[in-house]
Design a protein that fits this description.
single chain; alpha/beta; 6-stranded parallel sheet; 23 helices; 19 strands; globular; binds thiamine diphosphate; binds magnesium ion
């Protein structure tokens, strides 16, 4: 408020305690238990970040907004509270928006709070500093988008953002805060009264009894039942009930990538190593927080043993998910915890054991596949192939099951998913529904910040490049993160050649023999270069023992990978090329 304005007030008014937008936003976040912000400073949010830190919020500053956004998104997944990403206007906002869209696709609760330029100028397109109609751009890419224009509405704005992010199917929310809002001053008492504590932000959604009975009837009729656990099941934190449901029914279960560890991958009922058999030959499939998208071949076709018919039971909080790709015989709409509890209460001592011929068939296939893979994991050669290197990391996680594994790449991702067993819930974080590169360092940082647990990030050399500068952030905050780069000199392989024969390298290859470990050393972290699985194991053990930021450059045979890892079939082909 200007001096002139103060002078015009009646006597006594000038001494009344005032507050401003900066403080109201901080107070609104704190009132709702939000204690960490991930972001990048700049106009108009630099002072806001400083004040938030001064007020006791942990503010983690990144080198690029997309990584801060990915950190916020995975913080949301791990805590069931919206992760907060803070960005500057226009370009900073756009950098964070990719992460917000990815969070929405993956059903992670996140709020992107972005400063924005002056509305009057933006809306007349008069060319403001970092001018952009951010609200309009964010809207189609997230679950909800809000703008606050008046300090007195900050409490409501933050409350709406929190509720939208975590209730029902969680997702990304955009909150637009124009620069002028931060400096707006209102009476402190009025400001305090305007704040809203969100009561029961993610209300339980109880399934209808008839839907529960229908699901149980379909399940009971199965001769070859299968349970698929998705990352929604991991998010729900209904770990004990999910385990009880699986064990009481004795049904084989298949964990999707980020649901690994809900029950240990070494559990006798885990069918992870018999994936194609159980998808093809099952007759009733119950999906818990898993969607029938491309990752499950849309629930149809050869993978699912068509033309034979299959019955699906689907547990999801979002009614629109039902029949998205195929008919769902028993839709069970509600939150996963409530649905699983309701099913459990219908499963008594008389519930039939899972048919033993089916259980035995699955077990035989799984044992066969595990035995086939075993010798490949023990190869101690230089340069390493993927299996040899992953064999070493598999032992690391077996010995340290509390470690959080972050994983991205193509071969590095697909092979690690199959080889590295996970033993506890929410210990595997990866590229999710989109198969997006770039989540690595953001996920690793937030996993360490939110849980305090050691983090092992297993990264393809290409994948790492998308967020690699954040090794400085890891060193700056001294986080217990060990990054292992599977360095095969490129995307999928390091052996491609330029078909035109010119001086330019092929499109998929990188500088040969790069030493990514030196990047970590540049910022005071520990770097190591390893060429055998034994060396790799020793270096990772040392990193996890010390808790020091470490980057291990693991030299992988450049010829070892395959095109697009395990999803090469998705590459478009022209009939002309086949001539
Ligand atoms: C944002 C984004 N850009 C591009 C891609 C395409 N892509 C898929 S995997 C991959 C990198 C694979 O190479 P690397 O990480 O080195 O794994 P490798 O197969 O060599 O182990 C790329 C660029 C993507 N998935 N996401
Ligand atoms: Mg590579």
């Amino acid at each position: 408020m200007s001096d002139a304005a103060v002078q015009l007030k009646p006597a006594g008014e000038a001494e009344r305690e005032m507050t401003d937008g900066f403080h109201l936003i901080i107070d609104a976040l704190k009132l709702n238990g939000i204690n960490t912000i991930y972001g990048v400073p700049g106009i108009p949010i630099t002072d806001f970040g400083r004040m938030a830190q001064a007020a006791g919020i942990r503010v983690i500053s990144f080198r690029h907004e997309q990584n801060a956004g990915n950190a916020a998104a995975i913080a949301g997944f791990l805590t069931k509270q919206p992760g907060i990403c803070l960005t500057v206007s226009a370009p900073g906002f756009l950098n964070g928006l990719t992460a917000l869209a990815n969070a929405t696709t993956n059903c992670f609760p996140m709020i992107l709070i972005s400063g924005s330029s002056e509305r009057e100028i933006v809306d007349l397109q008069q060319g403001d500093y970092e001018e952009m109609d951010q609200l309009a751009i964010a809207k189609p890419l997230c679950k909800a988008a809000f703008r606050v224009l008046h300090a007195a509405d900050i409490g409501i704005g933050v409350a709406r953002a929190i509720r939208a992010a975590v209730s029902g199917r969680p997702g990304g929310v955009y909150l637009d805060l124009p620069a002028k809002l931060f400096g707006q001053v209102i009476d402190a008492e009025r400001g305090a009264k305007s704040l809203v504590k969100v009561i029961d932000p993610a209300p339980a959604q109880i399934p209808a009894p008839a839907a529960v009975k229908r699901a149980l009837d379909v399940l009971k009729s199965a001769k070859r039942p299968l349970i698929i656990l998705g990352k929604g099941a991991a998010y729900a934190q209904a770990d004990e009930d999910i385990r009880a449901l699986v064990e009481k029914t004795g049904i084989p279960f298949l964990p999707m990538s980020m649901a690994k560890g809900l029950l240990p991958d070494t559990h006798p009922q885990c069918a992870g190593a018999a994936r194609s058999t159980v998808l093809k030959d099952s007759d009733v499939v119950m999906m818990i927080g898993a969607r029938l998208n491309w990752l499950l071949s849309h629930g149809k076709g050869k993978t699912w043993g068509e033309p034979h018919s299959k019955k699906f039971i689907q547990i999801d909080i979002e009614p629109k998910e039902m029949d998205s790709n195929v008919e769902i015989a028993a839709p069970l709409v509600g939150d996963i915890g409530s649905c699983v509890q309701a099913l459990l209460s219908g499963i008594d001592g008389k519930w039939p054991a899972a048919p033993s011929d089916w259980v035995n068939t699955v077990k035989a296939k799984k044992d066969e596949n595990i035995a086939k893979m075993a010798p490949r994991l023990m190869k101690n050669t230089a340069p390493m192939d993927f299996h040899g290197a992953l064999g070493a990391l598999r032992t690391v996680i077996k010995e340290r099951p509390d470690t959080i594994l972050v994983n991205e790449g193509a071969n590095t991702l697909d092979l690690a998913r199959g080889v590295i067993d996970i033993y506890k819930p929410r210990r595997r974080l990866d590229v999710g529904t989109w198969g997006v590169m770039g989540i690595g360092m953001g996920f690793a940082i937030a996993a360490a910040v939110e849980t305090g647990k050691p983090v092992l990030a297993v990264e393809g050399d290409s994948a790492f490049g998308f967020s690699g500068m954040e090794v400085e952030t890891i060193c700056r905050y001294n986080l217990p993160v060990c990054v292992v780069i599977f360095n095969n000199n490129g995307i999928y392989r390091g052996t491609d050649t330029n078909a035109a024969g010119g001086a330019d390298p092929a499109t998929t290859v990188f500088v040969k023999g790069s030493r990514y470990d030196k990047m970590m050393e540049a910022f005071g972290g520990v770097g190591a270069n390893v060429t055998t699985p034994d060396e790799l194991k020793r270096a990772v053990d040392a990193a996890l023992d010390s808790g020091k930021p470490t980057l291990i450059n693991a030299v992988i045979d450049p010829a070892a990978g395959s095109e697009s890892g395990r999803i090469g079939n998705l590459n478009p082909q022209s009939v002309l090329r086949k001539k």
